[in-house]
Structures are given as structure tokens and as C-alpha cells.
TrEMBL record:
Gene3D superfamilies given in the database record: 1.20.58.1020
Residue numbers spanned by region Disordered: 109-134
Superkingdom classification of source: Eukaryota
Main localization (coarse): nucleus
This protein's name: DNA replication complex GINS protein PSF2
Amino acid sequence: MSVDKLTQVLEAERNSQEMSEQLPFHYVEISRLLFDHAHDDIPDAYMVRSLIEDIRDVRFHKVETDLEAFNGRTIAVKIKNLSAMEVNIVRPFIGRALQAFYKHDSPELIPDPERVPDRRPQVVQNAPRRQLRR
């Protein structure tokens, strides 16, 4: 997490149309943990935090740009090299958007959740429960 390395990553993100592969999948979570628990060990912590936020903002802009391409004919979405946080933010929106497209395009193709049985039946275990160790 050096300033030089993060500056290079930021420039690569700004200059490319695609997401960079240089960052770990959990880069936001890792940086958050390091700032919370090892803040004193990070040289130029303010600059490092600022660069990570800038990288995150550039990547969000790319995701937004990719999602603007949605239309009624979209049947799947593939965005490469998303981080865990980006996946968790985008996933609910994509699911709802695709479902809305399908509903407006052909409502008979969307299964009615009230008529479709739960696909995973719950298994009832009658075995006695054991005590947890402390």
C-alpha cells in the first residue's frame, strides 16, 4: 500500500476502459482493516486513504458506465475484475433490472413466486442437539 503503487493503479484505472487486475478481490476490506488496526504503521496514511477512495470512485464510474448499456434485450451481464464490495453493490440492482426487463417484455416467462414451490426443501433433523463447548 505504498503511495507510488497506488498512484500507478489509479492511473491505470483512469487510462483503461476495463477494470484493472492489479487489485485484490477484497482491496476495500483489506484497506479498511489496515486503517482501523494498523493506522500508525502506514506511512502517508492520509494520502493512501485518499488514493484508495479515488480508485474506488473511478471503478464505480466504470461500473455505472457499463450498466448504462442495459436495454430490453439484455439477458446476461458480465463485468470483469470487480471487487467484492462492487459485486455486492451491483448484484441487487442487476437482478431487479433484468427481472423488470423480462416482466415488461414477456410476463409469462417470469415465474410467479407464489405459485412456484421453494426449490430447496428444508430438511428436518430429529436428532438431539448437543451442547456447544465454551
